[in-house]
Amino acid sequence: MRLSTSTLYVTATTAGLALVLTACGGGSGAKSTSAGTWDKNATVNVGSLYEPQNLDNTAGGGQGVTEALNGNVYEGLFRLTDDGKVDKLLAQDYQASADGLTYTFTLRSGVKFHSGKELTSADVKYSLEKVLADDSQSARKSNLEVVKDIATPDAHTVKVTLSQKSISFVYNLSYVWIINSEAKELKTSEDGTGPYTLAKWTRGSALSLNRFAGYWGDAAANKQVVFHYYKDATALNNALLTNAVDVVTSEQSPDALAQFKSNQSYKVNDGNSTTKLLLAFNDKAKPFTDVKVRQAVSAAIDDQKLLESVWGGYGKLIGSMVPPTDPWYEDLTKVNAYDVTKAKKLLAEAGYAKGFSFTLDTPNYDPHPTAATFIKSQLAKVGITVKINTITPDEWYTKVYKNHDFTATLQEHVNDRDLVWYGNPDFYWGYDNKQVTQWVAQAEEATTTAQQTELLKKVNRQTAEDAASDWLYLYPQIVVANSKLSGYPLNGLNSQFYAYDIKKQG
Amino acid sequence: MTYTDVLRKPAEARRRRSATLLAGCTLTALIALLAVVSLVWLPYDADDTSGGRLAGPGDGHLLGTDKLGRDLFTQLMTGSRIAVEAGLGSVTIAALIGVTLGVLAAFAQGWLDDTLAAFLDILIAFPTLLLAMLVVAARSATLGSAVLAIGLAQSAVVARLVRILVKRVLAQDYVTAARTSGTSWPRTVVGHVLPNIWPTLVVNLALQFGLAVLAEAGLSYLGLGAPPPNASWGRMLQEAQATFTTAPAGALAPGILLVVLVVGVNLVADGLRDTLDPATRRRRS
């Protein structure tokens, strides 16, 4: 499991998603409609490692909830396109006031919930309040706390007043599912507006979705989608080989890919991901309080070799928290790049010419132990001794995330646009730079996205130069599918998997 | 085997017995040798990642390398040391606690005897893995925690065996004679009980050694044993699982060594039983 799915995370799991409806950028072979005829009544079998804990995305259901239900069963007022732009979905139109504090949304008319009820502004109000409720575990809750008031002047208008300007407000709304305000038992059932209804959920095994006849938009290209859940990647790959599933949402190891690459019956797709592997220092704990020590450690680790070890030829190097799909991306891989001589020099300047020793809290699941082993061997070359302490995800949450009781740790951060967390000095990594905090705050209150982007680029560069953390690499996003399939999302970033455009040859 | 069979072929029986022991000792010694040599010499530094990702056998690496480019044979040698350490450590803990508890239980009377017996049964029924997880949660995931957990679980098995053996010895006439003549019970234990139970005990401990090695590999496989970068065989198997189709050596090598060691100690235990067990010895001579 990936820790990052849980609500403690940063910017929720949904953004930057490959929106199937919009044309996708390069390498989108699978998106083009294949020449052959396709079966409108096909059942698409999807293989996944991420079974939902429950079906409510405000109740800690995990990334499996997003994967199976987001966009398929539930829809938001907005959705995100492949290049990170916001598209209108259930909102037909919206207007922001000049001071940026009031947003007026006009809802699409003729939208029906699966239960038959028509969508009204009351449902939108209810859905927003559900995310903001005290017991909500939604990852977007903290971002949406700027919402001061939600008014519903008529059945198709929603007026939201904010306590302060928030340029990401509309973007954040794309994470809010619009749910029927009268729906009950949302942990085990659903009532959304999406192109599929939930047919059956067999815990521990499968979740099936059926095409919704009353959908307001274009009907799904297939009749049924079944998510099959596996506990381990080998079993999942075997299921693909034996045609038990048609597509695997996210491959977690490059070594199983050879068998698919050499086989005409399968297609291996290498998309964009936003998942970053971090060596996160506790910037408030010695010796990582010293910028030079952090820079030295970053420079002493050969990220390219680590990426090669873990992912074969896949994945990318990053020099900061920002993946290429975020609007404020800049290639910073040259900052604190691999340079052992420079690392030694920096250590000497910091007064650690003879090195030092620290404990690395390492989550006990892949790829963390491998990365920890690699880091230990790399840092030994500059005289730093690493003591690897393996911990469970629960321990990580309590010890590292909540109590900040660590010196350095490893963690994967799955979300897009999560650079802004370096503006929060109370976040677990304890990076405290007043200027950065100010920039992040200003960026959120910016009037134009150009201003926002400019400010966050500054944040990006500053955190990179300060080596706030060591960003080891960006994961690849690998989707493997049967060649009979087309139209599946390629960048199903970390969790979303829109299934409605998937076509299966008859 | 009937009495007359044995009478007719004592030499053959002895030969088979010693062949088992010899085979067991050879296999065990092989691993022990690897473990001992690893203390003073390794083909590569344990941290050396210069080998290239999943390189095949040959080219300076006898068995190839792992994902990080570390030499597999080096890891196997370190792994054999960890396996032997885990086996010896667990068995020592099991023997110390097991024999003490078992002897006490055997001497206990009435309700205390029943309680101890029930307690041991419950302890035996408690899954080793679960016990190990508790120990690891209370301490941290280290080889020491794993060994402690395995040792504790096995001490119950040893204690139950010792209790039965001791009770049997205590029922003998010569023990009754010794005790009525005023010999203290500690002296009875040292002078009469232990000499009579040790052959069976040693055989059982040898078997427990094999089980302990397997248990440690299992725990390390689950990430509850020796932490990285220590190359426990179990961890190696776990790491090699994803790359089994492309680089099978990574999984086969630790798997084979695990089998060699466990079969080895089991054969030793078999051989020892035939040689040492008074019952077998009496029947066969």
TrEMBL record, chain A:
Residues annotated as signal peptide: 1-25
GO biological process, one term: peptide transport
Solute-binding protein family domain mapped to chain residues: 88-416
A GO molecular function held by the record: peptide transmembrane transporter activity
Protein name per its UniProtKB record: ABC transporter substrate-binding protein
Record bears the keyword Signal: yes
One annotated Gene Ontology cellular component of this protein: periplasmic space
InterPro entries, sorted: Peptide/Ni-bd, SBP_5, SBP_5_dom
Organism: Streptomyces adustus
Pfam families: SBP_bac_5
Keywords: Signal
From TrEMBL, chain B:
Top-level lineage group: Bacteria
Membrane topology field: Multi-pass membrane protein
Protein's cellular compartments: Cell membrane
Membrane-spanning residues: 21-44, 86-108, 115-137, 143-162, 201-224, 244-269
Keyword Transport: yes
InterPro entries hit by this protein: BP-dependent_transpt_permease (IPR050366), MetI-like (IPR000515), MetI-like_sf (IPR035906)
Similarity-based family: Belongs to the binding-protein-dependent transport system permease family.
Protein's recorded name: ABC transporter permease
Organism of provenance: Streptomyces adustus
